[in-house]
C-alpha cells in the first residue's frame, strides 16, 4: 500500500528526517514514536500526500483511499456533526451516506448531540468526531496523528476497536504509545 | 452533475458558517457604510459625480478585500485544507464553491452600499450597478484562491496573515480596473454631488 525508500524532508536548512524506509500493507500497523518536534507529524503528512518529500522514492495509494486525522479533528466548528459528516460524505461520494453517518455517530457516542454545534463540544468529543470523519469512507489506509489526544477511557476503547480492525493499513504517530503498542506490527522511532 | 452538487454543498457550507459565526458580512457592511459616510462629509460641495464614483470603487474594493481575506479563515485556522484536498472531488469545486460564497457576501454588502451611495452622493445609474455586479464576479472568481495541498497561496511572503491580503489585493484590483473605468467614463457629464445640509 505504501512503499517509501530513503525518504527525507527538509524545511530550508533544517533537516527533519533523512533515510527513512517505510513499507505498509493491509493488516499492518506502523507505530511512529518520538519526542515533540522529531518529525512524526511531518512523516504522516508526507505519507498522506499533503507534503512533498525532499528526497527519496514514495509510492502512495489514491487519495480517496486515505483517511487522515491530524493534530486537529479537521471538522468545521460552527457546523453540527451531522452537517460535517454529510458534507464530507458528499465530497467522498459515499453511497447511502445517511446510514453510514448514523452508524458512526452511534458507534462513537455522538448520536444524541448530532444537531449541536461542534464548537460547544469538549476536545474529546471533537476528537471522536474527527475519528468518525476519517472512517466515513472506510479508507484502506488510515493515518492518525496523536489519535488518543483528549480521549477518555471510553474514547480510548473506541480507538482500540478501530486499531484492531485488520482490513486496512494503519500508521499512528504518537509520543505516548501505550494505547497503540498492543496493536503495532511495525515500529519507527524518531530521536 | 456530481461536480455541481459538490460546488453547491461547499458554497452552502460557507453560507451556513457565515450565518452562524457572523464574522465576515457584518464587518464588510460596517466598513462600507463608514467609508461612504466619511467620504460624504469629507468631499467639498460641488465635487463631480466622477470623483464620487471613484470613491465608491475605493470603498467597494476595500470591502471586497475584507471579505476575501476572511474567505478561508475556517479552513486555515482549523487545518481543514488537509481534509478537503484529500477528498476525491475535483479541486476546482473547492474554488468555485468559495467563489460563489464570496460573490454572495459582496452582493449582500452592495445591496446596502449602493443605495447608501445614491443617498449620499448624486444617485446611481444602471450602468454603474451592472459594472459593480461584473466586478463582483471578477473579484470572487479571481480572488478566491485555488487551494493547494499545503494550503499555501502563490505569494512569496511566508506570513499567512499577509499572504492572503497580498493575493486578494492584486486580484480585487485587477478585477475592478475595467469596471471602474467604464463607470467613470460614462458618467463624466453627470452633475455634481448633492449638497449636504
Question: Care to give the gist of this entry?
Answer:
Chain A is α/β, with parallel strands linked by helices. Chain A is 28% helix and 26% strand.
Model description:
The complex is a heterodimer of chains A (191) and B (197). Chain A has 191 residues and is of the alpha/beta class. Chain A contains five helices and eight strands, in the order βββαββαααβαββ. Chain A has two domains: 113 residues, Rossmann fold; 69 residues, no CATH class. In chain A, α2 crosses α3. The model of chain A has no long low-confidence stretch (mean pLDDT 94). Chain B is mainly alpha-helical and 197 residues long. Chain B contains eight helices and no strands. The termini of chain B are far apart. The C terminus of chain B is likely disordered. Classes of the chains: A alpha/beta (191), B mainly alpha (197).
End-to-end separation of chain A: 26 Å
What is the domain total for the residues of chain B? 1
Taking all Cα atoms into account, the compactness measure Rg of chain A is: 16 Å
Low-confidence stretches of chain B: 146-162, 192-197
Question: Whole-number radius of gyration of chain B?
Answer: 18 Å
Largest sheet of chain A: 5 strands, parallel
Greatest contact pair?
A-B, 28 and 24 residues
The CATH architecture category of the largest domain in chain A equals 3-Layer(aba) Sandwich
Question: Strand pairing plus helix content of chain B: what structural class?
Answer: mainly alpha
- Portion in strands of chain B: under 5%
Let me know the largest β-sheet of chain B: none
CATH superfamily of the largest domain in chain A: P-loop containing nucleotide triphosphate hydrolases
Q: Separation of termini of chain B?
A: 56 Å
What overall geometry of chain A do the principal axes of the alpha carbons give? Answer: globular
**CATH class group of the largest domain in chain A:** Alpha Beta
Number of helices of chain A: 5
Question: For the residues shown, what is the average pLDDT of chain B?
Answer: 80
So what's the overall shape of chain B?
Answer: elongated
Whole-number mean pLDDT of chain A: 94
Level of helix content of chain B?
over 70%
Q: State the order of secondary-structure elements of chain B, H for helix, E for strand.
A: HHHHHHHH
Amino acid at each position: 500500500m505504501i512503499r517509501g525508500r530513503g525518504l527525507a524532508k527538509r524545511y530550508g536548512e533544517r533537516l527533519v528526517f533523512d533515510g527513512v524506509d517505510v513499507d505498509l500493507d493491509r493488516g499492518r500497523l506502523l507505530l511512529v514514536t518520538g519526542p515533540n518536534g522529531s518529525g512524526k507529524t511531518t512523516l504522516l503528512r508526507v505519507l498522506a500526500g499533503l507534503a512533498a518529500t525532499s528526497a527519496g522514492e514514495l509510492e502512495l495509494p489514491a487519495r480517496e483511499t486515505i483517511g487522515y486525522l491530524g493534530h486537529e479533528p479537521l471538522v468545521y466548528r460552527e457546523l453540527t456533526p451531522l452537517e460535517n459528516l454529510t458534507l464530507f460524505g458528499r465530497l467522498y461520494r459515499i453511497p447511502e451516506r445517511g446510514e453510514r453517518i448514523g452508524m458512526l455517530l452511534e458507534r462513537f457516542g455522538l448520536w444524541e448531540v448530532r444537531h449541536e454545534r461542534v464548537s460547544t463540544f469538549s476536545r474529546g468529543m471533537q476528537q471522536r468526531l474527527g475519528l468518525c470523519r476519517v472512517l466515513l469512507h472506510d479508507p484502506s489506509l488510515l493515518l492518525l496523528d496523536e489519535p488518543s489526544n483528549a480521549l477518555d477511557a471510553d474514547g480510548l476503547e473506541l480507538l482500540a476497536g478501530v486499531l484492531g480492525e485488520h482490513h486496512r493499513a494503519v500508521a499512528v504517530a504518537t509520543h505516548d504509545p501505550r494505547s497503540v503498542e498492543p496493536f503495532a506490527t511495525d515500529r519507527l522511532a524518531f530521536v | 452533475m456530481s461536480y455541481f452538487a459538490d460546488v453547491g454543498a461547499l458554497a452552502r457550507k460557507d453560507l451556513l458558517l457565515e450565518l452562524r459565526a457572523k464574522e465576515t458580512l457584518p464587518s464588510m457592511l460596517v466598513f462600507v457604510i463608514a467609508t461612504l459616510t466619511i467620504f460624504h462629509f469629507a468631499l467639498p460641495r460641488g465635487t463631480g459625480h466622477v470623483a464620487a464614483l471613484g470613491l465608491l470603487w475605493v470603498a467597494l474594493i476595500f470591502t471586497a478585500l475584507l471579505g476575501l481575506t476572511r474567505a478561508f479563515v475556517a479552513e486555515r485556522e482549523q487545518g481543514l485544507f488537509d481534509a478537503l484536498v484529500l477528498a476525491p472531488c475535483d479541486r476546482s469545486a473547492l474554488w468555485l464553491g468559495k467563489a460563489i460564497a464570496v460573490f454572495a457576501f459582496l452582493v449582500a454588502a452592495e445591496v446596502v452600499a449602493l443605495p447608501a451611495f445614491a443617498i449620499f452622493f448624486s444617485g446611481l445609474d444602471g450602468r454603474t450597478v451592472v459594472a459593480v455586479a461584473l466586478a463582483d464576479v471578477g473579484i470572487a472568481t479571481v480572488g478566491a484562491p485555488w487551494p493547494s495541498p499545503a494550503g499555501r497561496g502563490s505569494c512569496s511572503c511566508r506570513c499567512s496573515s499577509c499572504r492572503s491580503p497580498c493575493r486578494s489585493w492584486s486580484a480585487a484590483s485587477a478585477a475592478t480596473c475595467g469596471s471602474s473605468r467604464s463607470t467613470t467614463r460614462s458618467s463624466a457629464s453627470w452633475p455634481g454631488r448633492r449638497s449636504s445640509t
